Amino acid sequence: MTPKPDGCVEKEKxxxxxxxxxxxxxxxxxxxxxxxxxxxxxxxxxxEISNFKAYDSGHWYFSLKDEEGQIRCVMxxxxxxxxxxxxxxxxxxxxxxxxxxYVPRGDIQLTVQSMRRAGMGGLYEAFLKLKAKLAKEGLFDxxxxxxxxxxxxxxxxxxxxQAAALKDVLSTLGRRAPHIPIVIYPTLVQGPDAxxxxxxxxxxxxxxxxxxxxxxxxGGGSTEDLWAFNDEKLAYAIAQSPIPIVxxxxxxxDVTIADFVADLRxxxxxxxxxxxxxxxxxxxQELDAIMQALLQRVRQRVEREAQTxxxxxxxxxxxxxxxxxxxxxINSWQRQLNQAWLVRVENWKxxxxxxxxxxxxxxxxxxxxxxxxxxxxxxGKSDEDQAMHAVRNPSELNTESVFEVRLAEGRAxxxxxxxxxxxxx
Length: 425
Fold this sequence. Notes:
Layout: H1 6-17, H2 25-39, E1 43-54, E2 60-66, E3 69-75, H3 77-80, E4 92-102, E5 107-117, H4 121-136, E6 155-159, H5 164-176, E7 182-186, H6 194-208, E8 213-218, H7 232-240, E9 245-249, H8 257-261, E10 264-265, H9 269-276, H10 280-319, H11 323-362, H12 364-369, E11 374-379, E12 389-390, E13 402-407, E14 410-414
Helix pairs in contact: 5-9, 6-7
């Protein structure tokens, strides 16, 4: 047996003296995962998608690869809802992800936080920058947005006449509300000239003032295809439009600046038509329900008023006596009136007799009939010379004047020859 060199023996002796900690596979994998999470922050990685799978849970599982290697990736439901498109195997993308280690399988993987198509980094940054600027200016505020009319007089559509979305919108409007007129404002919806064309269409609709709501629609497409709807001038034109605007651009996952500024965002062009036009059959049902409710209210009111009329008629029948009773009452009043009149006449006759007897007692003729006479002074050449008056004082008598003496059975003119007068004491 060949002896080992002294150096080797010494090395083995030192290794045998080092205490060894034995790790489980899970502990080792967790240690690796912790080390990777501490070592790497969020990283941007570009590559081609392969083995893409979207599970019922909503999570995405796939790999990113290039000519030099590949790495597994996972993107959870809460994050992939903001991507804006459905990835497919073979797509070139750029992802922002956290580097991690999947302990059960012992694989390094990327937990993707956001995803964009490869080469769209500059456009995406411009989109975010413009979005932040307009949000700061208040163009996205809910208080600024106008209410969409529930029963518009007419609906305007701004889109390309050749767009497939226009056919879908017209079909939806024709089915839901065939009674509402449609005005189409044709324009480009893709390319560098599209923003100016859309703005001109908005101005034309504003000038005509023929519609109550505008549908700004376009079918789906890539980010480049929809980029016209991320134009800053178009955003201001939408915000300043006096006519409410419903935006229906792309698919449900597509989001543009126009969607944020519009008064209402629809997930698709068809959805925009549904939001702007009430369903005709539903309106007819609502009108029929209103009519039935009104008829019910009218019937209830008529029945209530009929009952009130019956009550009033009953009260009136008690308040007014029958004709026989009225005739009896009239005869009774007539008898009472005649009786009162006879009593009044008798009273008048009695009073007249009393007054007449009193007048007779005061009649001077009655005094003369008892043997008295009255001397009247003032007898002149004619009866009109002066008024006659009764002599009450002997001093009024004289021998020159003619006096009239009135007796019970006549009168006589006398002239005194001698007068011996004396005053009553």
